[in-house]
Amino acid sequence: MTDPSSPGAGLPLAGTRIIEVSSFVAVPLAGMTLGQLGADVTRVDPIGGAADYNRWPLTDAGESLYWASLNKGKQSLAANFRDPEAQALIADLVVDAGVLISNVAGRDWLDHDALAARRPDLVHVQLLGRANGGAAVDYTVNAAMGFPLVTGPAGVSSPVNHVLPAWDVAAGLYTALAVSSAVRRRDATGQGARIVLPLEDVALATVGNLGYLAEAQFGGPDRERLGTAVYGTFGTDVVTSDGVRFMLVALTPRHFADLTGLTGTTEAVKALETALGVDFRDEGTRFRHRDTLSALIRSWFREHTAEEAAAALAASSVLHERYRTFRELAADPLVTDNPMFSRLDQPRIGPHLAPGLPMSIDGTHEAPRPAPANGDDTAEVLTTRLGLDADRLADLTARGVVKTSAPTETKDRT
User: Fold this and answer.
1) For a 10 Å CB count at each end of the chain, is N or C smaller?
2) Catalytic pick from 138, 168, 258, 376?
3) Is 168 a residue of the active site?
């Protein structure tokens, strides 16, 4: 039974225990998301941390902001993955928790069938690179999906990779969805689940769901590079007289009419319609003539400041936003006045604004909780979950089977 005073006690997944054995983005994001929904998540890593424990970006002191940001609210247990005794302890924790999420492969002691033999209602979600078991990461999967060859300005012949690990993020959220769905079914029927989620299939499904594969199968033209234009409708970037850049999107006839009215180009656009024999109320027509329309629109912005442009856009229906750097965004009200963000005093890093769950539940955002250091919670997890006594814990630590933090190292992360 969930302690009503514990963090996340009133959230949808309160009372659900999850063991996470992972690295990099997708599964850590899934574990953190599940934790923000109320689950009790314990991340299990090798002593010293997995491959992502010291991943960039780093603080000046060498602490990973990446790790701290993707592992908020979890517990950390550190063990020697090569030691059979440690492997048995981790398997015991999985059986105790009943849910395992992982992106590691080739570890017999995490085999689903062996674990499910001990706990038939086990929910096990495993993220693979490829459906055939082959290795893949976001950056290699993306190369095959077509996007790098249609990203960037016209005239560029080389691939342009985006910096957002979109497939990892999507796979992480799919993992969280899979766990939530499987736990719901288990609660209703007592049935466990073995779920395999290949990263490559997440990307392929997305490309298909957006219609890109169907377009190609039905003989559509090869996509061209559009720069900042938006395929199939009107979108463009503009620069103000003081050098600030905005992105504008006009999806509907009203959006476009407001944009031409704002920029004083309504009559010029009507004359262009007459000359070309077209109707710009159709978004496909706006897309096909995007270069001419953009040239008309941009002239107004070149004669007005960012402040003037922002005020005019705000008074219209035009979809718009100013381009920002990460540094500008961190100081913007989008972050500083956003109830999703709250002050987090992260041990070893310091206080900063950090996001909680993007959705509000019953009108509130669950506040973020600090991320652990490697092995911060080993002692607590092994004693409370598996009932190990102090002598056994001291023996395991002395022999290097597990790593425990000294009492002075352990931080309050409630």
Assistant:
1) N
2) 168
3) yes
